[in-house]
Input
Amino acid sequence: MEQISKNVFVETKVRGCNPAFVITSDGVVVIDTPQLPTRAVEMYQLAKSYGPIRYLINTEQHVDHIFGNYYFDEVEHIISHRATFDNFMTVYPQINPYLYAKEAIPTDDPEGASIFPDEKTYFSKPNKPDIIIDGDMEFKVGDHTFQLLWTPGHTPGQLAVVVPEERMMFVGDTIFNGCQTWLYTSNVEQWIRSLDRLLEVDVDIVIPGHGPVCTKQELYVQRAFLLEWVTQIAVAVGKGWSKEECLAKLGFADRFPVDIGQEYMLNDVTVNNINALYDQLTVKMPVMPRKK
Output
């Protein structure tokens, strides 16, 4: 893991999200867990070497942020938004999270095969959150403050974690820095509002869900890319294009690569993004009742 300050470690160079932990004077706070088994065990052991793990925060429901919880045995509390808890390891038409985690083992973590649990074993103790929140939350651990901000959009239960003493915020998949953005379960309107909210936070360093550590400037880049996606599909809908025409002609495959280990998924990401946005932009608004 990369040490980006005296008290903060983050991993940005392996398949999965960017998990991190913060060392305080009274233990450690972990933010998301690695998808790959050997990386999860290594991070768990490294974090514990600095003190007891007081809290583990899951910023969202997707498997690359939560699967590693399984390997974090000695954690006092796990925190998430209620929507993350309710959708923990949910199977979607586009993806089965357990199988997605499993398929990465041969290519990205062959040493992890021996500690990768079978499905029954995994679901007997997935280490789901035990502290569930419905909005923002703030707490202190030792000499550090942790401000959890509800930033829905990419997922309904998306959280950002602001650590004022480090002048950092961990925004999860609200930012995909320099790589393809996944939209297929997202509400882009909420996402843009959440980006605007994060622009008001006074920090110097931003840890995105994917891609290199960055600054708040990437909030503008992410917002622009979301607007480009929406505009591209909206213009096509305005021209009367079918979903099939959009799938054949649109996308931003040449703009960014997909994140590490997902190179083979570029077409799937594009297709899922177009499907999701087309459905959102062509749905009829509910009819408002007339006033008598």
